Structure formats: structure tokens, C-alpha cells
Amino acid sequence: PESAQLVLDRYDETQEAGDDDAETEPEPGSVGDRATRASGSFLDELTEGERDEDDIGGYYTDIRFVLDSLTSKTFRIVGLFMIVLAGTFYWLYSGGIGDVRSDFLARLPTEIDPGELQVIALHPVEALVFEVKFSTLIAAAATLPVIAYYAWPALRDRNLVRGHRNVIFGWVAFLLLGLFGGFVLGYSFVAPSVITYLVEEAVRANMVISYRISDFFWLIFYTTVGIGLLADVPVLMVLLNTAGVKFRWMAGRWREVTVGIMTFAALFTPADIITMFMLTVPLMAAYGVGLGVLYVLTLGGRRDLAPGESDAESEGRASPD
């Protein structure tokens, strides 16, 4: 009886497994089967029938591997993002935006009457929209180092970077130094000079000077924090090269970088093509400066800055923690 029962159990398991396979596999000619064959043919055409680390399949595998490594840290990442966003928004909403406006107007030259410069809101929620966008940018900037820290082991396993992830702390220090220096330079000299030039031209033309609140503060942002971000681009490129991202890769992927910057500008700046190009062109110029600096430092790409690594050596080695 026991042997017979085992045979029956085995038969039932085999039948259940067959039913599961029949449910998961699409029938020939069905929509699922056509989609599977179409997607496979599409990728085969893009990769010429072979998948390696440089084609779309390789990039997808890398991205998925890195994202999977971040799932266990999602709560911390999202928590930090929300805390910074809420804190920044609360500061702006509770009077911070007015304090920035007053302090900035006080830095204008004495020949410019702050009363001639009016900052207006065409809609009651216009200021709120700017505060939300600005808070989101600050929160994203504060979260990126944490994401990089948690994703570093996965990036290293995919041979995208090299070294211990504690180098992130040094990176943050260098980038904050460049950002703060550019911010001080822009807030003290660049932004007041730009506003003064615009106001003087309008006064000569006997025009009434008024700025929408979002345009006024985005102008301040671009001429203060923007200067710091431009200074950080070459610094970040040098740091990435020391971590194993090769100069030849950065030089060969400038088109993808351009598309990424334009996409970011379209999403996080005012809905204006001029504004998008005002952000994209300076960033790409800074990217070009970074390539020039790396060209000199790496001897034309023949020797990257990563410790113990050159073009003649293997590109796929990673040091342990």
C-alpha cells in the first residue's frame, strides 16, 4: 500500500507540473507567443544575435543587478529623501523664500533701487510649485551619495567601478567644496551682476520691471548653485576615473550624456526650450572641460587614474572590501 501511494503521489506531482508549464508557456500563434518572438527578434537585431556587456542586454542586466542590490535599503533611501524634501519645503514655505529675496536684493549695487524690481506671482500656487521643485532637487542631491554608497558593491561586482565604497565620503567632501565655492562666487558676484545688467537695460528703456516669482528664483538658482554644479562636473569626472570609469568610455558616450542632461532639464526646469538649452549647453561645456582635463591627466587616455590599472591591463578586476 505504501509503494502504491508513493506511485500515485508521484503521478499527481507530474500532472501538476505539466499543468503549470502549460499555463506559463504561451500557445503558438497567441498574443503572448508573438510578443515573445517579436521582443527576441528586436534584441537580436540590435545585438546582431550576440549579447555582450556593451549592448542593450548588457546595460539592462547591469541596471537590474544594481537596482536589486538597493531593494533592501529602499526604506532608508526614501526616508532620507522625504526628510530632506519636507525640511527644505517647510523652510521655504515658512518664510525662507522671502528671506532669500530680501538678502539677495540687499546685495545689488547701490545705483539699483530694489523698489524698481517687482517679484510677482501670477497664480497663488506658483510659489508652491517652485518650492516643491526646488525641495525635490535638494532632496535628490542629498540622497545621491547614499544611493552611491549602497550601490557601490554591486557596481564593483559588475566591474563598473573599483576600490572600497568608503571613497564616497571623500567624493562628497570634494564635491561639496566645489559646490560651496561656486555658490559663494555666484551669490556674491555673478547673480548680482546679471540682475544689475538686466535691470539697468530695462530702466534705460523706461520699462516696468517685474519678474514672475518662479523665473526670479530660478535665475538666482542658475547663477549661484548652477556655478557650483558646473565646477563639480570636471571634479566628478576625475573622481570617476580614479574609481575605474575609463576616459575613453566617457569620451565615447557624450551623446548619451547629452540626452540625459536634456531629459533632466525638460523635467526639472520651467517649461521653456530656452531654459532647457541654458542648462544643457553650460553642462556640456563643463563636460568638455572635464574631458580636456582627463585627456591631460591620463596622457590621452593611455593611462587612467585608477590605482594599478592601465589600458594594457585587464578591465574587469575589482578589489575586495
UniProtKB/TrEMBL annotation:
Bilayer topology: Multi-pass membrane protein
Highest taxon, organism lineage: Archaea
Start-end of Acidic residues biased regions: 14-26
Stored Pfam families: TatC
Keywords recorded for this protein, A-Z: Membrane, Transmembrane, Transmembrane helix
Annotated Gene Ontology cellular component terms: membrane
Transmembrane segments: 74-93, 134-155, 167-190, 216-240, 252-271, 277-297
Subcellular location: Membrane
The protein, known as: Twin-arginine translocase subunit TatC
Lineage, highest ranks first: Archaea, Methanobacteriati, Methanobacteriota, Stenosarchaea group, Halobacteria
